[in-house]
Amino acid sequence: MLAASGRYLSINWLSSGGGAFAVLPLPSPFKPLPNNLPWKLPDIIPLARGHSAPVLDTAWSPFDDSLVASGGEDGNILIWKIESSAFEGWGHEKFEPVDFDPVARISASPKRIGQLLFHPAANHVLASTTGDHTIKLWDLERSDDPRITLGGHGDTIQSMDWNWAGTLLVTTSRDRKIRLFDPRASTDAVRVADGHAGIKSVRAVWMGQSDRIATTGFSRQSDRELAIWDAGSLDNVRKLVVDQSAGVLMPFWSDNQVLFLAGKGDGNIRYYEYENDNFVALAEYKSTDPQRGLCFLPRRALAVSECEIARAYKVSGSIVEPIAFVVPRKSDSFQADIFPPALSAEPALSAAEFFNGKKAAPNVQSLETGAIAPSSVSFAPTPKNSFGPGAAAPAPTPSYTAPTPAPAPKIVEPTPAPAPAPVRQESIPAPTSAPSKNGSSGGALQEENSRLTTELRDARAQIRALELQVETMRANAQRAKELLGLGADQ
Protein backbone atom coordinates (compact mmCIF):
# COMPACT_ATOMS: atom_id res chain seq x y z
CA MET A 1 0.00 0.00 0.00
CA LEU A 2 3.06 2.26 0.15
CA ALA A 3 5.96 2.87 -2.26
CA ALA A 4 8.75 5.45 -2.53
CA SER A 5 10.92 6.95 -5.23
CA GLY A 6 13.76 9.38 -4.69
CA ARG A 7 11.25 12.27 -4.70
CA TYR A 8 7.73 11.05 -3.91
CA LEU A 9 5.61 8.66 -1.86
CA SER A 10 2.52 6.86 -3.18
CA ILE A 11 -0.14 5.61 -0.75
CA ASN A 12 -3.31 3.65 -1.48
CA TRP A 13 -6.28 5.89 -0.68
CA LEU A 14 -9.87 5.09 0.22
CA SER A 15 -12.13 7.28 -1.89
CA SER A 16 -15.61 7.30 -3.35
CA GLY A 17 -16.22 6.73 -7.04
CA GLY A 18 -13.54 4.11 -7.65
CA GLY A 19 -9.92 3.49 -6.75
CA ALA A 20 -7.33 6.15 -6.06
CA PHE A 21 -3.95 6.72 -4.48
CA ALA A 22 -2.21 9.78 -3.09
CA VAL A 23 1.19 11.12 -4.12
CA LEU A 24 3.12 13.09 -1.48
CA PRO A 25 6.45 14.91 -1.57
CA LEU A 26 9.10 12.83 0.16
CA PRO A 27 9.43 13.79 3.85
CA SER A 28 12.96 13.74 5.26
CA PRO A 29 14.01 13.39 8.92
CA PHE A 30 16.81 15.91 8.31
CA LYS A 31 15.17 18.87 6.55
CA PRO A 32 11.77 20.55 6.05
CA LEU A 33 9.27 19.34 3.49
CA PRO A 34 9.69 20.70 -0.06
CA ASN A 35 7.46 23.55 -1.28
CA ASN A 36 7.05 24.66 2.38
CA LEU A 37 4.33 22.06 2.83
CA PRO A 38 2.89 21.61 6.35
CA TRP A 39 3.53 18.38 8.25
CA LYS A 40 -0.24 18.03 8.67
CA LEU A 41 -1.82 17.45 5.29
CA PRO A 42 -4.72 19.60 4.05
CA ASP A 43 -8.18 18.07 4.35
CA ILE A 44 -8.42 17.76 0.55
CA ILE A 45 -5.40 16.86 -1.55
CA PRO A 46 -4.96 15.91 -5.22
CA LEU A 47 -5.40 12.19 -5.87
CA ALA A 48 -4.48 9.91 -8.74
CA ARG A 49 -7.90 8.72 -9.85
CA GLY A 50 -8.64 6.50 -12.81
CA HIS A 51 -9.27 2.99 -11.50
CA SER A 52 -12.88 1.83 -11.24
CA ALA A 53 -12.06 -0.35 -8.21
CA PRO A 54 -9.62 -0.09 -5.27
CA VAL A 55 -5.91 0.32 -6.02
CA LEU A 56 -3.91 -2.66 -4.72
CA ASP A 57 -0.31 -1.71 -5.50
CA THR A 58 1.90 1.05 -6.85
CA ALA A 59 5.50 0.92 -8.09
CA TRP A 60 7.93 3.71 -9.00
CA SER A 61 10.31 3.46 -11.91
CA PRO A 62 13.90 3.04 -10.66
CA PHE A 63 15.04 5.31 -13.52
CA ASP A 64 12.49 8.14 -13.25
CA ASP A 65 11.47 9.40 -9.80
CA SER A 66 8.29 10.96 -11.23
CA LEU A 67 6.97 7.89 -13.11
CA VAL A 68 4.66 5.56 -11.17
CA ALA A 69 2.50 2.57 -12.15
CA SER A 70 -0.66 1.49 -10.34
CA GLY A 71 -2.66 -1.75 -10.41
CA GLY A 72 -6.13 -2.40 -9.07
CA GLU A 73 -9.06 -4.70 -8.56
CA ASP A 74 -10.38 -3.64 -11.98
CA GLY A 75 -7.54 -5.51 -13.75
CA ASN A 76 -6.03 -2.33 -15.19
CA ILE A 77 -2.50 -0.92 -14.98
CA LEU A 78 -2.27 2.86 -15.17
CA ILE A 79 0.93 4.85 -15.75
CA TRP A 80 1.28 8.31 -14.20
CA LYS A 81 3.77 11.16 -14.63
CA ILE A 82 3.97 13.43 -11.58
CA GLU A 83 4.87 17.08 -12.10
CA SER A 84 6.42 19.00 -9.20
CA SER A 85 4.15 21.99 -9.92
CA ALA A 86 1.19 19.94 -8.63
CA PHE A 87 2.33 20.59 -5.05
CA GLU A 88 2.52 24.37 -5.23
CA GLY A 89 0.12 26.17 -2.93
CA TRP A 90 -0.89 23.16 -0.80
CA GLY A 91 -2.66 24.28 2.36
CA HIS A 92 -3.10 27.91 1.24
CA GLU A 93 -6.48 29.53 1.66
CA LYS A 94 -7.36 29.59 -2.06
CA PHE A 95 -5.77 26.23 -2.88
CA GLU A 96 -7.85 24.18 -5.33
CA PRO A 97 -6.64 20.58 -5.67
CA VAL A 98 -6.38 19.20 -9.20
CA ASP A 99 -6.31 15.42 -9.50
CA PHE A 100 -3.59 13.65 -11.46
CA ASP A 101 -4.42 12.09 -14.84
CA PRO A 102 -2.81 8.88 -16.17
CA VAL A 103 -0.63 9.09 -19.27
CA ALA A 104 -1.26 5.46 -20.27
CA ARG A 105 -3.77 2.72 -19.54
CA ILE A 106 -3.23 -1.04 -19.94
CA SER A 107 -6.11 -3.55 -19.82
CA ALA A 108 -3.92 -6.18 -18.24
CA SER A 109 -6.32 -8.85 -16.99
CA PRO A 110 -10.00 -9.65 -16.47
CA LYS A 111 -9.05 -10.19 -12.82
CA ARG A 112 -7.21 -8.14 -10.22
CA ILE A 113 -3.65 -6.83 -10.48
CA GLY A 114 -2.08 -7.72 -7.15
CA GLN A 115 1.54 -6.59 -7.44
CA LEU A 116 3.78 -4.50 -9.69
CA LEU A 117 7.57 -4.56 -10.00
CA PHE A 118 9.90 -2.66 -12.34
CA HIS A 119 13.01 -4.29 -13.82
CA PRO A 120 16.26 -3.27 -12.04
CA ALA A 121 18.37 -2.79 -15.21
CA ALA A 122 16.04 -2.35 -18.22
CA ASN A 123 14.03 0.82 -18.73
CA HIS A 124 10.20 0.63 -19.01
CA VAL A 125 9.98 -3.12 -18.24
CA LEU A 126 7.21 -3.84 -15.74
CA ALA A 127 6.11 -7.15 -14.16
CA SER A 128 2.56 -7.61 -12.87
CA THR A 129 0.79 -10.43 -11.03
CA THR A 130 -2.80 -11.23 -11.96
CA GLY A 131 -5.74 -12.86 -10.25
CA ASP A 132 -5.54 -15.82 -12.65
CA HIS A 133 -2.15 -16.80 -11.16
CA THR A 134 0.11 -15.51 -13.93
CA ILE A 135 2.90 -12.96 -14.18
CA LYS A 136 2.97 -10.69 -17.21
CA LEU A 137 5.98 -8.70 -18.40
CA TRP A 138 5.20 -5.45 -20.20
CA ASP A 139 7.14 -3.11 -22.46
CA LEU A 140 5.62 0.24 -21.50
CA GLU A 141 6.73 1.75 -24.80
CA ARG A 142 4.44 -0.70 -26.66
CA SER A 143 2.01 -1.89 -24.03
CA ASP A 144 -0.93 -3.27 -26.02
CA ASP A 145 -0.07 -6.87 -25.16
CA PRO A 146 2.27 -8.49 -22.63
CA ARG A 147 5.61 -9.50 -24.09
CA ILE A 148 5.92 -12.56 -21.81
CA THR A 149 3.40 -14.44 -19.64
CA LEU A 150 4.70 -16.75 -16.90
CA GLY A 151 2.45 -19.54 -15.62
CA GLY A 152 2.47 -22.64 -13.47
CA HIS A 153 1.34 -21.19 -10.16
CA GLY A 154 -1.30 -23.28 -8.42
CA ASP A 155 -2.76 -20.44 -6.37
CA THR A 156 -2.44 -16.73 -5.60
CA ILE A 157 1.02 -15.23 -6.18
CA GLN A 158 2.14 -13.66 -2.91
CA SER A 159 5.47 -12.02 -3.84
CA MET A 160 8.08 -11.71 -6.60
CA ASP A 161 11.56 -10.23 -6.91
CA TRP A 162 14.23 -9.87 -9.60
CA ASN A 163 17.83 -10.89 -9.08
CA TRP A 164 20.53 -8.20 -9.24
CA ALA A 165 20.86 -8.20 -13.05
CA GLY A 166 17.18 -8.89 -13.77
CA THR A 167 17.83 -12.19 -15.54
CA LEU A 168 15.92 -14.36 -13.05
CA LEU A 169 12.65 -13.87 -11.18
CA VAL A 170 11.71 -15.62 -7.92
CA THR A 171 8.08 -15.98 -6.82
CA THR A 172 6.18 -17.31 -3.82
CA SER A 173 2.63 -18.60 -3.99
CA ARG A 174 -0.23 -19.63 -1.75
CA ASP A 175 0.38 -23.21 -2.91
CA ARG A 176 3.50 -23.13 -0.63
CA LYS A 177 5.94 -23.36 -3.54
CA ILE A 178 8.95 -21.22 -4.37
CA ARG A 179 9.55 -20.86 -8.11
CA LEU A 180 12.47 -19.59 -10.13
CA PHE A 181 11.90 -18.24 -13.66
CA ASP A 182 14.23 -17.30 -16.49
CA PRO A 183 11.51 -15.34 -18.35
CA ARG A 184 13.32 -15.05 -21.68
CA ALA A 185 14.18 -18.76 -21.79
CA SER A 186 10.87 -20.33 -20.73
CA THR A 187 7.41 -19.34 -19.59
CA ASP A 188 7.50 -22.19 -17.06
CA ALA A 189 9.53 -22.21 -13.88
CA VAL A 190 13.05 -23.62 -14.26
CA ARG A 191 13.09 -24.58 -10.59
CA VAL A 192 10.32 -25.36 -8.07
CA ALA A 193 10.84 -26.12 -4.37
CA ASP A 194 8.67 -26.60 -1.30
CA GLY A 195 8.67 -23.43 0.79
CA HIS A 196 7.52 -22.78 4.34
CA ALA A 197 5.09 -25.35 5.76
CA GLY A 198 2.59 -22.86 7.20
CA ILE A 199 -0.50 -21.68 5.32
CA LYS A 200 0.06 -17.94 5.82
CA SER A 201 1.72 -15.58 3.37
CA VAL A 202 5.34 -16.10 2.25
CA ARG A 203 7.53 -13.22 1.02
CA ALA A 204 10.78 -13.46 -0.94
CA VAL A 205 13.60 -11.00 -1.59
CA TRP A 206 16.81 -11.48 -3.57
CA MET A 207 19.91 -10.77 -1.47
CA GLY A 208 21.74 -8.31 -3.69
CA GLN A 209 24.48 -9.61 -5.98
CA SER A 210 24.72 -12.99 -4.21
CA ASP A 211 23.12 -16.26 -5.31
CA ARG A 212 20.97 -16.29 -2.18
CA ILE A 213 17.25 -15.66 -1.70
CA ALA A 214 15.69 -14.78 1.66
CA THR A 215 12.10 -15.73 2.47
CA THR A 216 9.80 -15.14 5.42
CA GLY A 217 6.90 -17.42 6.25
CA PHE A 218 5.37 -19.64 8.91
CA SER A 219 5.92 -23.15 10.24
CA ARG A 220 3.14 -25.68 10.81
CA GLN A 221 3.10 -24.49 14.45
CA SER A 222 2.59 -20.88 13.23
CA ASP A 223 6.12 -19.77 14.18
CA ARG A 224 7.38 -16.91 12.03
CA GLU A 225 10.42 -18.11 10.06
CA LEU A 226 13.32 -16.62 8.12
CA ALA A 227 15.01 -18.85 5.52
CA ILE A 228 17.92 -18.65 3.06
CA TRP A 229 17.81 -20.50 -0.29
CA ASP A 230 20.49 -21.26 -2.87
CA ALA A 231 19.30 -19.72 -6.14
CA GLY A 232 21.03 -22.38 -8.25
CA SER A 233 19.30 -25.42 -6.80
CA LEU A 234 16.58 -23.84 -4.61
CA ASP A 235 17.96 -25.92 -1.74
CA ASN A 236 17.26 -24.56 1.72
CA VAL A 237 20.56 -23.31 3.20
CA ARG A 238 19.32 -22.16 6.60
CA LYS A 239 16.02 -21.68 8.42
CA LEU A 240 15.53 -19.72 11.65
CA VAL A 241 12.53 -19.20 13.94
CA VAL A 242 11.98 -15.48 14.52
CA ASP A 243 9.05 -15.49 16.98
CA GLN A 244 5.42 -16.60 17.33
CA SER A 245 3.54 -13.47 16.28
CA ALA A 246 0.68 -13.66 13.78
CA GLY A 247 1.57 -10.81 11.41
CA VAL A 248 3.24 -11.43 8.05
CA LEU A 249 6.96 -10.56 8.03
CA MET A 250 7.99 -8.20 5.23
CA PRO A 251 11.69 -8.58 4.22
CA PHE A 252 13.73 -5.69 2.80
CA TRP A 253 17.32 -6.11 1.59
CA SER A 254 19.93 -3.34 1.76
CA ASP A 255 23.14 -3.63 -0.26
CA ASN A 256 25.31 -2.97 2.77
CA GLN A 257 24.52 -6.60 3.69
CA VAL A 258 21.66 -5.79 6.05
CA LEU A 259 18.24 -7.49 6.01
CA PHE A 260 15.29 -5.66 7.59
CA LEU A 261 12.21 -7.55 8.81
CA ALA A 262 9.00 -5.65 9.55
CA GLY A 263 5.86 -7.36 10.81
CA LYS A 264 2.42 -6.31 9.60
CA GLY A 265 0.27 -5.46 12.59
CA ASP A 266 3.16 -4.83 14.98
CA GLY A 267 5.43 -1.82 15.29
CA ASN A 268 8.85 -3.46 15.35
CA ILE A 269 11.57 -3.60 12.71
CA ARG A 270 14.40 -6.09 13.22
CA TYR A 271 17.62 -5.88 11.25
CA TYR A 272 20.38 -8.40 10.70
CA GLU A 273 23.83 -8.37 9.18
CA TYR A 274 24.32 -11.17 6.64
CA GLU A 275 27.65 -12.98 6.87
CA ASN A 276 28.58 -16.41 5.45
CA ASP A 277 24.99 -17.73 5.34
CA ASN A 278 24.37 -16.49 8.89
CA PHE A 279 22.25 -13.62 10.13
CA VAL A 280 23.78 -11.69 13.04
CA ALA A 281 21.12 -9.70 14.89
CA LEU A 282 22.08 -6.03 15.08
CA ALA A 283 19.21 -4.40 16.96
CA GLU A 284 15.48 -3.78 16.79
CA TYR A 285 13.43 -0.65 16.23
CA LYS A 286 10.46 -0.82 18.60
CA SER A 287 7.22 1.09 18.47
CA THR A 288 3.78 0.69 20.01
CA ASP A 289 2.15 1.93 16.79
CA PRO A 290 1.37 -1.03 14.50
CA GLN A 291 2.40 -0.60 10.88
CA ARG A 292 -0.17 -1.13 8.13
CA GLY A 293 2.43 -0.76 5.41
CA LEU A 294 6.15 -0.12 5.02
CA CYS A 295 8.60 0.69 2.26
CA PHE A 296 12.25 1.72 1.96
CA LEU A 297 13.83 4.65 0.15
CA PRO A 298 16.17 3.93 -2.80
CA ARG A 299 19.72 4.02 -1.42
CA ARG A 300 20.86 6.67 -3.90
CA ALA A 301 18.55 9.17 -2.12
CA LEU A 302 19.90 8.65 1.42
CA ALA A 303 21.38 11.45 3.55
CA VAL A 304 24.98 10.21 3.39
CA SER A 305 26.28 13.24 5.30
CA GLU A 306 24.14 12.13 8.26
CA CYS A 307 25.51 8.54 8.15
CA GLU A 308 22.03 7.32 7.20
CA ILE A 309 22.34 3.77 5.84
CA ALA A 310 18.60 3.15 5.30
CA ARG A 311 15.28 4.95 5.59
CA ALA A 312 11.87 3.39 6.00
CA TYR A 313 8.44 4.96 5.57
CA LYS A 314 5.77 3.53 7.82
CA VAL A 315 1.99 3.91 7.62
CA SER A 316 0.30 3.77 11.01
CA GLY A 317 -3.32 4.86 11.26
CA SER A 318 -3.51 8.17 9.38
CA ILE A 319 0.19 8.92 9.85
CA VAL A 320 3.16 8.48 7.53
CA GLU A 321 6.38 8.34 9.54
CA PRO A 322 9.92 8.44 8.13
CA ILE A 323 12.35 6.31 10.15
CA ALA A 324 16.07 6.91 9.59
CA PHE A 325 18.58 4.19 10.43
CA VAL A 326 21.74 6.09 11.34
CA VAL A 327 25.18 4.74 12.20
CA PRO A 328 26.42 6.70 15.26
CA ARG A 329 29.66 7.98 13.75
CA LYS A 330 31.19 11.36 13.10
CA SER A 331 30.25 12.40 9.58
CA ASP A 332 33.33 14.53 8.85
CA SER A 333 34.37 12.31 5.94
CA PHE A 334 32.73 9.77 3.65
CA GLN A 335 32.26 6.37 5.34
CA ALA A 336 33.12 4.00 2.50
CA ASP A 337 32.68 0.81 4.54
CA ILE A 338 28.98 1.44 5.17
CA PHE A 339 28.13 3.06 1.84
CA PRO A 340 28.79 0.66 -1.06
CA PRO A 341 27.68 1.90 -4.50
CA ALA A 342 23.90 2.13 -4.93
CA LEU A 343 21.73 1.30 -7.92
CA SER A 344 21.66 4.42 -10.09
CA ALA A 345 18.83 6.12 -11.96
CA GLU A 346 20.49 5.38 -15.31
CA PRO A 347 19.22 2.21 -17.09
CA ALA A 348 21.68 -0.29 -18.53
CA LEU A 349 19.24 -1.62 -21.15
CA SER A 350 16.24 -0.49 -23.14
CA ALA A 351 13.07 -2.56 -23.04
CA ALA A 352 13.67 -3.73 -26.62
CA GLU A 353 17.20 -4.88 -25.78
CA PHE A 354 15.97 -6.81 -22.75
CA PHE A 355 13.23 -8.68 -24.64
CA ASN A 356 15.70 -9.42 -27.46
CA GLY A 357 17.85 -11.33 -24.96
CA LYS A 358 20.63 -8.86 -24.19
CA LYS A 359 22.18 -9.03 -20.72
CA ALA A 360 23.80 -6.16 -18.84
CA ALA A 361 24.64 -5.50 -15.22
CA PRO A 362 22.73 -2.56 -13.72
CA ASN A 363 24.54 0.74 -13.40
CA VAL A 364 25.62 1.77 -9.91
CA GLN A 365 26.33 5.18 -8.44
CA SER A 366 29.03 6.20 -5.98
CA LEU A 367 27.40 7.74 -2.92
CA GLU A 368 30.53 9.85 -2.42
CA THR A 369 31.05 11.41 -5.86
CA GLY A 370 27.84 10.53 -7.73
CA ALA A 371 29.87 8.85 -10.50
CA ILE A 372 27.94 6.18 -12.43
CA ALA A 373 29.48 2.95 -13.74
CA PRO A 374 28.33 -0.60 -14.62
CA SER A 375 28.32 -2.98 -11.67
CA SER A 376 30.47 -6.10 -11.83
CA VAL A 377 28.36 -9.23 -12.01
CA SER A 378 28.84 -12.58 -13.73
CA PHE A 379 25.88 -14.09 -15.55
CA ALA A 380 25.24 -17.66 -14.50
CA PRO A 381 23.83 -20.03 -17.14
CA THR A 382 20.13 -20.69 -17.16
CA PRO A 383 19.28 -23.41 -14.59
CA LYS A 384 18.66 -26.78 -16.26
CA ASN A 385 17.11 -29.99 -15.02
CA SER A 386 19.92 -30.73 -12.58
CA PHE A 387 22.39 -28.68 -10.62
CA GLY A 388 25.71 -29.24 -8.95
CA PRO A 389 26.40 -28.19 -5.42
CA GLY A 390 25.47 -24.61 -4.58
CA ALA A 391 28.04 -21.94 -5.19
CA ALA A 392 30.35 -20.95 -2.38
CA ALA A 393 28.94 -18.46 0.08
CA PRO A 394 30.00 -14.85 -0.41
CA ALA A 395 32.99 -13.64 1.58
CA PRO A 396 32.16 -11.84 4.81
CA THR A 397 31.83 -8.09 4.51
CA PRO A 398 33.70 -5.73 6.83
CA SER A 399 31.96 -5.47 10.17
CA TYR A 400 30.74 -2.10 11.34
CA THR A 401 28.98 -0.46 14.23
CA ALA A 402 25.30 -1.29 14.33
CA PRO A 403 22.94 1.36 12.96
CA THR A 404 20.64 3.11 15.37
CA PRO A 405 17.09 3.83 14.20
CA ALA A 406 16.30 7.50 14.75
CA PRO A 407 12.53 8.08 14.75
CA ALA A 408 11.82 11.10 12.59
CA PRO A 409 9.02 13.66 12.98
CA LYS A 410 5.59 12.29 12.08
CA ILE A 411 3.35 14.01 9.58
CA VAL A 412 1.07 15.26 12.34
CA GLU A 413 1.29 17.86 15.03
CA PRO A 414 4.18 16.82 17.34
CA THR A 415 3.24 14.81 20.42
CA PRO A 416 5.44 13.38 23.16
CA ALA A 417 6.86 10.03 22.13
CA PRO A 418 6.75 7.12 24.61
CA ALA A 419 10.04 5.93 25.99
CA PRO A 420 11.36 3.06 23.89
CA ALA A 421 11.35 -0.44 25.32
CA PRO A 422 14.73 -2.06 26.01
CA VAL A 423 16.30 -3.49 22.90
CA ARG A 424 16.38 -7.27 22.82
CA GLN A 425 19.74 -8.28 21.38
CA GLU A 426 19.78 -11.56 19.48
CA SER A 427 22.84 -13.37 18.22
CA ILE A 428 23.45 -16.57 16.34
CA PRO A 429 26.25 -18.63 17.94
CA ALA A 430 29.36 -19.24 15.89
CA PRO A 431 29.79 -22.81 14.60
CA THR A 432 32.02 -25.07 16.67
CA SER A 433 35.33 -25.94 15.04
CA ALA A 434 36.03 -29.61 14.25
CA PRO A 435 39.18 -31.28 15.69
CA SER A 436 42.29 -30.83 13.55
CA LYS A 437 43.97 -33.77 11.84
CA ASN A 438 47.39 -32.35 12.67
CA GLY A 439 47.33 -33.41 16.30
CA SER A 440 46.29 -32.09 19.68
CA SER A 441 48.18 -28.80 19.31
CA GLY A 442 46.19 -27.90 16.19
CA GLY A 443 42.93 -28.83 17.94
CA ALA A 444 43.83 -26.66 20.92
CA LEU A 445 44.54 -23.71 18.63
CA GLN A 446 41.19 -24.13 16.89
CA GLU A 447 39.37 -24.32 20.23
CA GLU A 448 41.15 -21.18 21.42
CA ASN A 449 40.29 -19.42 18.16
CA SER A 450 36.63 -20.43 18.51
CA ARG A 451 36.53 -19.15 22.09
CA LEU A 452 38.10 -15.81 21.13
CA THR A 453 35.71 -15.45 18.19
CA THR A 454 32.73 -16.02 20.49
CA GLU A 455 34.04 -13.51 23.03
CA LEU A 456 34.61 -10.94 20.29
CA ARG A 457 31.07 -11.43 18.95
CA ASP A 458 29.62 -11.00 22.47
CA ALA A 459 31.71 -7.86 23.02
CA ARG A 460 30.51 -6.41 19.72
CA ALA A 461 26.91 -7.13 20.70
CA GLN A 462 27.37 -5.34 24.05
CA ILE A 463 28.97 -2.34 22.33
CA ARG A 464 26.07 -2.18 19.86
CA ALA A 465 23.53 -2.29 22.68
CA LEU A 466 25.33 0.45 24.63
CA GLU A 467 25.60 2.68 21.57
CA LEU A 468 21.90 2.20 20.91
CA GLN A 469 21.06 3.15 24.50
CA VAL A 470 23.22 6.29 24.28
CA GLU A 471 21.55 7.39 21.04
CA THR A 472 18.11 6.70 22.53
CA MET A 473 18.92 8.80 25.61
CA ARG A 474 20.14 11.64 23.39
CA ALA A 475 16.97 11.49 21.30
CA ASN A 476 14.76 11.49 24.42
CA ALA A 477 16.70 14.42 25.88
CA GLN A 478 16.28 16.36 22.64
CA ARG A 479 12.53 15.65 22.61
CA ALA A 480 12.22 16.74 26.24
CA LYS A 481 14.15 19.93 25.48
CA GLU A 482 11.88 20.71 22.52
CA LEU A 483 8.72 20.03 24.55
CA LEU A 484 9.93 22.20 27.45
CA GLY A 485 10.75 24.98 25.00
CA LEU A 486 7.32 24.63 23.41
CA GLY A 487 5.65 24.81 26.82
CA ALA A 488 7.62 27.93 27.74
CA ASP A 489 6.56 29.66 24.50
CA GLN A 490 2.93 28.96 25.27
Automatic annotation (TrEMBL):
Lineage: superkingdom: Eukaryota
Ranges of residues in domain DUF1899: 1-28
InterPro entries in the cross-refs: Coronin (IPR015505), DUF1899 (IPR015048), WD40/YVTN_repeat-like_dom_sf (IPR015943), WD40_repeat_CS (IPR019775), WD40_repeat_dom_sf (IPR036322), WD40_rpt (IPR001680)
Claim: Protein transport is one of the keywords in the record: no
Gene3D superfamilies: YVTN repeat-like/Quinoprotein amine dehydrogenase
Keyword Chloroplast in annotation: no
Alphabetical keyword list: Repeat, WD repeat
UniProt family annotation: Belongs to the WD repeat coronin family.
Protein name, UniProt field: Coronin
